[in-house]
Amino acid sequence: MALQSSSEFALGQEELEKISSDNSFDFTNPNTLTAEDLLKIFVGGGGLKDSLEKDLKEDFLEYQKLQSYSFPQQNPSQISQPFVFGNQPTTPSGFNTPQTNIFASNFGVQTPNSSSTPGSQFNQFVNNNHMPSSNQFNPMQTQQMYTQNAQSKSNGFFQPTTPQSTPQSPMTVPDPPIINFNQPIYIPSQRPNQAVQTLNEIQRYQTEQKSRIERLFQNQKQFMAAPQQQGFNMLSTEQKQIKEQIENELKALNNLYDTALLEPPDIQRLLWLRQDLEVQMKQLELLMIELNQLITPNSSPHNLACLVLLKCPFPIVISKNKQLPEDQLQVQLLTASNVHIQSISQVKAMLLCDINHGKGGGGKPLESDIQSLDPNTRIAKFPLKFCAGTKKAPGNLKFGMQIVFAGNNNPVMIESAVTQPLVVITNECQWEGSAGTLLKKETFSNGQLEVTWLRFANTLQHHFLKATRQELARPRRILSNYDVNYIHQKFFGGKHIINQKDFDDFWDWFGKAMQKLRYQRHICSLWQNGLIYGFIAREDVEAALNNQEPGVFLMRFSERHNGQFAIAYTGTERPSKIKHYLVQPNDTSAKKTLPDFLQEQPQFGTVLILASDTNGNPTFMKCPKVQALEPYCGKKMTTQSGDGYDPL
How far apart are CA 375 and CA 36, in angstroms? Predict the structure, then answer.
């Protein structure tokens, strides 16, 4: 089906008129579709046929490919060169516009002669031109926003819409702020958006379906005692309706994950909804099998019971001899309505992979791997302890138990589906490769060679928060919109469809940064508290430090030296010069941390700390390093004069 125009979203005019007349949707203007309309399309109320849904998906992928090749040809150096804060725009006639302190307007740092509220232009721009996030559920709108961001190449988070005509002047050092390390940098957005509305609608359906399935279970139990044709038809019809609705809800969730940049709480809710809907589907399938056995008797009884994963923390990389919290891994026994069980065994967990027992060999790969079902809820909780490595290869868990059904003395083996993959490592140096394997496996699931950028960005955010040991529902610092856009442009060229080769090149750099964040002493805490900016272009760092007094510095990950830190700072020369120092391996040790090294160097006096304002917008605040780094240093350090600058 050829793509006709973006406004018609690849549907013929006759099809559009027919669908619009049947459903009262305005398909000629996708931006007018509400969350309720989108749910009707996917969940059932809109009456879309499978063939039409397939055409929509094919044309949307075609639209994405067209978008990804719509950029004008540029020099590679221009593509990776973002727009710098301090660039002075030039009028068409060649005259320079008045100079501005764009750094101050972007980050809300107070300057002596600022004529407007600090950060006001930046906040207004973010409110009006938010990067694709959970409020862009509309696929076309999401792609357009990413195209605009890629073409504008805005940096320092975002370029203001219009420059302020305020004179440039050095920023004064305010009184040292009180550093509250309990205040998270990430503040969830309070603005309503289509993704949240869609999740709310699906959750409403999910809650209603749970009640419907429970009633269906009881009705079918009564029906099985005295079967009759009319009751059979009614039960069968309702089962098919619920099954179709669940299938469409799962499609809607997958579509949302592929076409919108979600906030972490929304990612967690989406994954929870998907897990719960899959459990509902399993229960429904058992009832359908039981009903159909009236037509085709003598079926095996083991088809009327199954084990399902109720909660599962995978995919994760876990260290050998580490034990899971009890409530993170749960399985439940489900049965059809008219099943009578004579006896059941305990539930056993099995690890499916090659095992590396290490020195001493032998032994069980798992401990606490046999648990009993709760007699009321039929739920078993597994605080598993992993006693052997998996040789850096992904493995899976499976659960099994034996059931003796009434009237049949032969035990029947019931097994669950396999979990998502996990890797058990025997030392921390295996983490980088193992985490990359799991991220790639989840991103390119089911043998996919290409996926949407937005799908990868959501998966990366989820893995990143787990890797930095943050709560998914209440993270302290996430990959911000700037971080995501930086990664998108730097490593994926702004493409809307990425492949496995793109991922491999990206992880070669990002994986080493993640290894530092996870295992090097103090680094994760420094990053979560904003003392390490982390993922930022060298050009943006220089723009942030432009016109700063000597000794102001900012820390980031080096773009050219994987896994190493770079410190940008203003020197003592007149005029001052921005310098970049690459932290060497021998600058730190087991007894000398990065904060200790920073305290020892007189060239570093005032650190730029990333924070958020009350609306969640990113800002910088300046703080003397002695105060900012004091919680991390092993001994008190006194400030040293910055006069007579000496090389590190």
Answer: 41
